[in-house]
Amino acid sequence: MTQLFSGSCPVYGGDDLSIVPVLWPELNNAWQLSEDETAYINRQQGLHCKTCNNNLRTMGLSAAILREFKVGGAPKQLCESFSDIRILEINTAGNLTPYLSKLTSHKLIKYPEYDMLDLDIESESFDLVIHSDTLEHVPNPERGLSECRRVLRSNGKCIFTVPIVVNRMSRSRVGLAPSYHGQSGVPADDQIVCTEFGADIWQIVLKAGFRSCEIFSFEYPAALVLIARK
Prior knowledge:
The protein has helices spanning 25-31, 35-46, 56-68, 75-81, 97-100, 141-150, 201-207, and strands at 17-19, 47-49, 87-90, 106-109, 126-132, 152-161, 171-172, 195-196, 212-219, 223-229. By secondary structure, the protein is α/β, with parallel strands linked by helices. The strands form three sheets. The chain has a six-stranded mixed beta sheet with strand order 4-3-5-6-10-9.
C-alpha cells in the first residue's frame, strides 16, 4: 500500500511542494526498474519544497532526526534544544546543512578528502552521524557503516538514507555496466553506483556492528530512513 506524504515540509515548514522527474531511460534500464519503481524513486528524488528546495528523501531524514530526538517543529528547534550535540555529516544532506552548521559541534566532511572506508576521525567522537544517498557509492557499504559506528559515542545513532528498491534484494554492481547518479550522460567517479539496495539493507547495518536497525517510513515506499543505534 502506498502512503503518500501530505503536509508541511519538516525542514522549513512550507507546504508549497513541486515535483520534477529526475530519472532518465539509461538509469532506469541499468537498474531494471518497473513503472511503479520509477514513479516512487522520482518522488523520492524529485518532490521538493519550493521554499527550502529539500526533496522528499531529505524531508524524511529531517523528520526521522527530529522524532529520534523528540523535538517538535524544524531542525532549528533541534539546534536550540540540543546545542551541545556532536553531529558528523558525511557529504551534504540536501539543504539540511545550513541549519545543522549553526551548531558549533557540527562537522561536515566530504569525499574524496575523507574516505568513508577509513575515516580519519577519533573513535567515539560524535552523538549522531548522518548521510543521505552516499552509501550506495561506497565500494564496501558494511565497512563504511562500521566506520560510522566506530566514531559514535556509546548509544550514538547513525541516521541515513539510500535509494531502496523495496521489492528486491540488494545487489552489487561489480561486473555490471557502470551506472551513475547525478545527471544523464555525465559520468563522475564519486557518483558511480557500487550497490543497489533492497529490502535486506537492515542486514548490512547489523553486520556492521550496530545493535539495532529501524526503518522509519516518512512515505512508503519513496522515503524510507534507516536509524542505526550503537
